[in-house]
Specification:
GO terms for molecular function: flavin adenine dinucleotide binding; oxidoreductase activity, acting on the CH-CH group of donors. This is Acyl-CoA dehydrogenase type 2 domain protein. This protein is α+β, with helices and mostly antiparallel strands and about 400 residues long. About 50% of the residues lie in helices and about 15% in strands.
């Protein structure tokens, strides 16, 4: 199905979110990956929404990508997380001159034509996230035809549905380089180890990916730099990362809020003789939830508008946005859980699932401690209280 107008996209995505919500609890309970959701996203071309128009995509900027992810997250957040990884990689690749043109074109064309998904696999058992420094243990060795990769990646969100695995690895050269090595799904030597046993985002299939002498062509390597020159995301990448990851959890918080409103409307304790909605304490709780979510929406809207008009905020500002929006999401759902009491904790109702999913917001890099330490250090350096070195 090709959606000609933005309004058509909005209607289709809202419909899919409603559809996904019908099976979200079952996927959570079984920790099963929502393959049907991915197929439905492909039906409307969602995997290619950020792909530039010259490659057949929709050319969405950050504002449109954020709106799609937020809406899908209200239906089933693990599905939204898979889309987030897709859009982040496409946006990064679009701006980077370090990707061979043939590789870039193939990834873009397959996203549009086949709905092919990609994720950047960086985390390892020993290293943890490379955002905190250190060299990956995953090794890329030179071969006459290109590269051979061996290593172990963890938290590979959506890996059963990926067409491409973008592996962060180091070379075996005397002076190691680090970079991205794009491995097609099904390549000999690549296997998935079903290790995902988490409290939240249980449907994300964020399993381990094991590589044992996996061969890829030379032009499937990109962004290779000497290890000592490797750097983190630039301001543009930080903005996309911060907005899309945080809006997943903002979407979860909003659907939790809507459940809470229904609970207050429908719950009529016998000793009260009226709905819980009539109690000032409940009205205050909902006001606190809505205040937190209002601030988050204002921050997200301002941020995406600046990025799309070319006035990208500083990297640290984007990280502050991530910190604030995810904290507000957790605050909102925690308040609903606190006030609703036992019904909120019951697996009969979705609020406890939303709360478990929201907890996962804390683990996406950069994590809160890194954001706040980095911001404090930056401010103190600017004030002359710390050396720039």
């Amino acid at each position: 199905m090709y959606l000609d107008k933005i309004d058509d996209v909005d209607v289709a995505i809202a419909g899919l979110a409603h559809e996904f919500a019908q099976t979200a609890a079952a996927h959570d309970a079984a920790a099963s990956f929502p393959f049907d959701n991915i197929a439905r996203l492909r039906d409307v071309g969602a995997p290619g929404f950020v792909v530039p128009k010259e490659f057949g995509g929709r050319g969405f900027g950050l504002a449109r990508a954020e709106a799609v992810v937020n809406r899908i997250a209200r239906g089933e957040p693990s599905t939204a997380l898979v889309l987030t990884q897709q859009y982040l990689f496409h946006a990064t690749m679009l701006r980077s001159a370090a990707y061979p043109p043939t590789l870039r074109e193939r990834i873009f064309h397959t996203a549009v034509g086949d709905g092919a998904l990609i994720n950047n696999l960086r985390v390892e058992p020993e290293l943890g996230t490379p955002a905190r420094g250190g060299l990956p243990a995953t090794l890329a060795r030179r071969t006459p035809q290109g590269w051979s990769l061996s290593g172990h990646k963890t938290f590979a969100t959506g890996c059963p549905a990926l067409a491409w695995h973008a592996i962060f690895a180091r070379t075996d050269e005397p002076q190691p380089r680090v970079g991205i090595f794009v491995v097609p799904a099904g390549a000999p030597g690549l296997r998935i180890e079903e290790s995902w046993r988490h409290l939240g985002m249980r449907a994300s299939a964020s399993h381990d990916v094991i590589l044992e002498d996996v061969n890829i062509p030379e032009d499937h390597a990109a962004e290779l730099v000497l290890a000592e020159h490797a750097s983190g995301p630039d301001a543009f990448q930080a903005a996309w990362l911060s907005v899309l990851f945080s809006t997943v959890y903002d979407g979860v918080a909003r659907v939790a809020r809507d459940w809470f409103v229904g609970f207050l409307r429908d719950r009529r304790p016998a000793n009260l003789g009226a709905p819980l909605a009539s109690l000032p304490r409940m009205q205050e709780a909902l006001g606190a939830i809505d205040a937190a979510l209002y601030v988050s929406r204002a921050l997200l809207d301002q941020h995406v508008e600046r990025v799309d008009r070319g006035d990208t905020p500083a990297q640290q500002d984007s990280y502050y946005l991530k910190h604030a929006v995810t904290a507000n999401a957790l605050k909102a759902v925690s308040k609903a859980l606190e006030v609703s009491g036992n019904p909120g904790l019951s697996q009969v109702n979705p609020l406890e699932r939303h709360y478990r999913d929201i907890l996962c917001a804390r683990v996406h890099s950069p994590q809160d401690d890194s954001i706040l330490v980095g911001g404090g250090r930056q401010a103190l350096t600017a004030a002359g209280a710390l050396s720039a070195n």
